[in-house]
Every structure is written in C-alpha cells, then in structure tokens.
C-alpha cells in the first residue's frame, strides 16, 4: 500500500428513532372503568383525563344539544328520538372511553380509584337532573292544565254575554274541559279548582232568571239540571238542586204571562211544570191560573168581538185537555175548567152569530147560528137563532133584508099565499116584521117557462086554472117583507127573491117559477 493511502473508518454513532407517542401504559381495568364512568356524566370528563380534547368537546356539544331540546320542560317531556340518540351516544362514549383508558395514563387525577370515585359521584348529577326535570315537567303539566282551566273560564265569561241558544256550544266546550280535568287529571291543581268554578258556571248560565227574564231562563235552567251527569265524581253540593226552584218559578211565570196574552205556549210550559215538579208550590198555582183564564176569556163574549172570545174559549178547552195533572185532585179540577170553557164557547156562539149578522157578515152568521141551533135544540136562544139564520140567508141575496135583527114575533093581519109553479121542490124563506120558512112540493105538471114568454106583457105564472099548484098561505104584518125562493135537492135553478110592501086591505099572492135558462123568477 502506498504511503499516501490509508484506511478510513466511519466512527458516527446512529441513535434509534424517537417514539411518536408515549409508550402505552400497562393495562389498568380500574382506569378503564373510571374513564367510562366519567364519560357517562355527559361532560366528557373521561376523555379530558386522557387528553382526548376533541372527543371531550363532542360530549359537551351532545349534552348541550339535549339541553336545548329538553329545556324549558314541556308536559310532553323530551322527544323519544332525542333521548334514545343521547343515551346511545353516552353508551358509545363510555365504551370507547373504557377502551382508551385501559392503556392510557390519566392526567390530573393520576390515581384511577380516585377518578372512579369522582365518576361515580358525578353520576349523581344526571340522576338529579332527571329528578329535577321530572319536577319541572310536572309543574309544566300543572301550568298547562291551569291554562286550560282559565281558557274554559273565559269561554263561560264570554258566553254569558250571548243569548243561550248561541252560547250553548261555548258552555258545552267549557263543561267538557271541566269534566276532562276531573276525570283525566283528578290530582291536578286545576281539577281541584273545578268545583269552585262551577258556582260561577251556574250563576252565569242562570243569569236570565236573576234578571227576571223568566221565559228566557227556562232553557238554560233545564240545561243546568243536566250538568251533574257531565261531571261524574264531582261534588257539586247544593248546586245540584240549584236550578230546580228557579226553573219551576220560570215555567210558571212564563206560562202565566202567555196564558194572559192568549199565546199558545202556555200549555206546554204548564205541562212541563206539572210533569217535572208536581209537588212544587208553583205547580199548585197552575189550576187556579187556568180557571181564572177561563173566567177572563168568558168576559170577552159580551165585548166588542165575541167571536174571538168563542174561538179562544174553544182553544183554551182543547189546551186544558192536553194538560196532564201531576198531583191528586188537579186532574178533576182541570177537566172541570175544560168543560166550562167548552160550554161557554158553545153558548157564546149565539152572541157571535148575532155580532156577525150586525156586522153584515151574513154568510158567517147563517153558518154560526145554524150550527148553534142544531147543537142546542132546547136552549132559550135557539128559536131566535133560527130566525136570524133565515134572515141572514135571505140577506145574502137581498142585503136590505139584514138591516134589522129578527125577533120571534109571528103572525099578522095580511094574508099572503105562496104557490109553486116550478118542477122543483122549494123552500120559501121570508123576513121582515116576522121571519120564518116553509117548504112547497114540486108541481108535477109544471115546466120551466121560456125566456121569451116571460118577457110578454101578458105573462102570468101560476095562472093555469087546470093545475093544482102546491101552495101555502101565511099571515104577515103590515110592512116590508123580503122573500127568497130556494130550489131544493140537486136542482140547477138559482134562488129568486122578492120584496113585498104589505098594506092592510089587500090579499097577496107569491108565485115561484123557473125559466128554461135555469134561472128563477117571481
């Protein structure tokens, strides 16, 4: 080897590479449990002790999110999905924390048993939070129920300013709330306040009675009698019978007013009173009130409109018949009142017919007095009623015949013979100083005259000496007498009239005949 050559040796020492992380600690089960338990607190404290700051922050965010969802406390509680997700997250954090803490040394609290004790102590915070949250939730529920109670109270207050028919739906809604509180939440503060609220409910619904508006009070008071059925298990005390006397008073007062005014509603109201409160003092006043109404209506028969009084009496009798007595003795008394009303109406028909005649309503007068005479054959007014009915029938054709009211006078000094020269049986009606009627048989050999023959100056009916005309002679006083010849049966002939001025010293003949144009003439 040459002198300038020499061996070179590398004397550099190579150190092994530094580890990127501290070496794992020996496995420690207590430490793993401590980290897991600390993570169960929801604050990520287990991760903090093993310096997993991101995961610590994630735990805090999850807990904060749960608090945002859960607070303020709601009667419905935390949404189930949020709760499930949070519990699952805590379980995952605990499991992962145990895995990390098994071989990772703790910082801060280096002794694992101490960390475990702290973790167990901190578990009381979530448990206490649950207890506090349940309390807050219960208070929120109580407040919700109180708000519901207040809403029902406002409904009642608002409804009190409306007519009952309009307000009833609001009362029903409020009553439904009260009932729901008592049945669904019996231990709540709101439910305990319902009985006190019911006094306001009753006085509000029954306010028309307090104002003296008895007709308007009946319906709401009937409604209040149904309230106890809507509030089972609620002690209402004297409110249960609160509407009874008020309703009885209202029914009586309203029916009495309607009876006095002649309105038809009184019968149903008295009927309700007798059926619902048969033993009440108000029910005892019903029959006397009805009897007084009959007497009061009878006085109208001598008034300016007796026909209206007759109709009211008839209606009154029918309405009384419809009443069902609820106590002994009342039924017999009401039947007597009904009979009196009907009897007075029948008797008053005569007065009505006379009034119709005087008013010139001859058609109505004829019907009224004919019906009266037929129904009261032995009554003292029947003879004159028959006479007025005859005059009314004549006056429908000859209005002048109705100027005076007929009497029962009969006979006279003047002889009047009426003959029938027609093929129809006829009724002869007459009125004037005396009034009456009779029937003449048909003339079998007679026929109707042609219109032309009746226009002949020499026309003379009833002038054929070879015929035996049916006839009748009557005696009449001096004065004007109105005659009406009325065909009988199904004859197509129309009635004919004549006005005769009867004077002393004369003998008069009336002749009834028909023309071929189906008219009648004298």
Please explain how this structure is put together:
The protein has 522 residues and is α+β, with helices and mostly antiparallel strands. Among the domains are: 29-122; 409-521, Immunoglobulin-like. It is built from 20 helices and eight strands. It has helices at residues 29-40, 45-49, 53-70, 80-101, 112-122, 124-159, 164-184, 189-205, 207-210, 214-224, 227-230, 242-261, 266-276, 281-284, 286-298, 306-321, 330-358, 362-375, 382-395, 451-454, and strands spanning 414-421, 426-431, 436-440, 471-476, 479-487, 496-502, 508-514, 520-521. The strands form two sheets. A four-stranded mixed β-sheet has the order 4-1-7-8, with no helix packed on it. Helix 6 (124-159) packs parallel to helix 8, helix 7 packs antiparallel against helix 8 and helix 10 (214-224) packs antiparallel against helix 12. 35% of the residues are buried. The model is unreliable at 518-522 (pLDDT under 50).
Concise account of the structure shown:
The chain has 522 residues and is of the alpha+beta class.
The quaternary structure here is: single chain
- Give the helix tally: 20
Topology-level CATH name of the domain at 409-521: Immunoglobulin-like
Query: Which spans of ≥5 residues are poorly predicted at pLDDT below 50?
Result: 518-522
Shape: rod-shaped
| Largest sheet report | 4 strands, mixed
In round numbers, the mean pLDDT is: 83
CA distance, first residue to last residue = 195 Å
**Beta-strand content estimate:** 5-15%
Q: What is the CATH first-level class name of the domain at 409-521? A: Mainly Beta
Radius of gyration: 55 Å
Strand order of the largest sheet: 4-1-7-8
**How many beta strands in the DSSP annotation?**
8
Name of the CATH architecture of the domain at 409-521: Sandwich
